[in-house]
Write the structure tokens for this entry.
Amino acid sequence: MSNQKRLQAGIPSGGQFSVMTRGESAVALDVEQPDTEQPAPAVLGDDLQPISAAQARRELPVGTRVQVVTLYWEDARPGWNEHLDAPDVRTITKQTPYEMISTGDVETWTGRGSHLEWLGHRAERDSTGNIVISYVDGTPIAAFMPIDADDPGSGQIDVQVPVMADRRDARGSDAARLAGLAGHHHESVRALVAANPAAPPQALERLVRDPVDHIAVAAVRNPSVRSRVLDLAAHSGELDTLMAIAENPRADGSTLVRLMDSNENLVARRAAANPSTPAGALRQALRSNRSAELATSIAANPSAALDILTYLSHSRRNDVTRQVAMNPSTPPKLLTQLASDDHHVDTRSMVARNTNTPKETLDSLARAVEPFIRQHVASNPAARSDVCARLAHDPHDRVRRAVAANPSAPQPVVVALLDDSDSAVRGDAAANPNCPQERIRNAAVDESHSVRCGAARNPNCPQDLLEEMAATHDISAFHARSNLESRAAD
């Protein structure tokens, strides 16, 4: 959704509305024009100067008529809540030491200034007296443009809030620009650079040492970060940064071995579960006096060798055997051994979830007394068709729901579950990709909102039906719009 579409509300009668941000040209919406010369755009955000909360209250007293412009649309996912992003004209109804601006929309809060709190926010005034409100990290939220009593509001707004252009560039792919923004004075800009896969190595090397912890963590988690940078950060990072490095599969083996020896248990356990940690280091850890602390994490490591998993499968600790049962690398023979009644019910339930579990073992687990074990079998894509058909008649609705949501459930089973007595079961069946399209259409007008939402979530829902559902005010419209957006992205 373009910025122009997002800001289309508040168009003066018979006129145009457009928005310009720094570095862009104004693009007018396709609205019929009168034969009159259009006024110059109203400038917003020029020469911003910080002001206090008290000063903002004085300059925007109760009764002031303002045009409210949401500035957070640059971060919004298209279509997520369109009414948040349209400028509109309102009157300020209240100011308190705790409430920044109240515009009288308590019942239907729209994010355009109603009950914004001063705590954690900052205010700035531009050269024409407009007030811009931002989060403490510099992210702009909204602007309040005072207008006269008979002013309908500006049809064109030239947004010149500098940080907005910087934030857009921080999402871009210009390496030189990103390197410069890595030292930006607003942490919100640096955070965007840190998370940008296009950020150059020198920018990430700087950001992993950022004094703001969440920025350093974002840089460490960046898919483009180099192992050398991670190794440097591991020598001086804060706890959250060290944990993020220990989780990163791009970290060098020697770095992970060092982190597994850390006195910080949270760091050591993450390194033990990292698939890039050398097998020799895992074996050594199991022979050390820290084996009790690290065994569960090693059991969860998807790169753990067969001898390690076999050794851990004999543990007397349920938390260890449970992780072995969950591990995607655990071979079928070992999973069958863990499915025996000798093991704890939690371990057996994780065997029921594992797609490596042999079909014969799943068939046996589907007859377990415990309903949550049957539920995990019912959700397992590896379960046989006859097992799914049997579990579709289970007395527990959560077991039937698991069958209904299983993408491997055969179509006759899914169709049968569309007539289940439980609406949640019917909703999951309506969302199943094996549900026939004619039954999806029936589900879209079901009396239960769970079923209607299930139809809207179905990846095979007919396009025309999705568009029709997205245009309604029904709760299913949200799921229909999300489905349409996913298809457009593909």
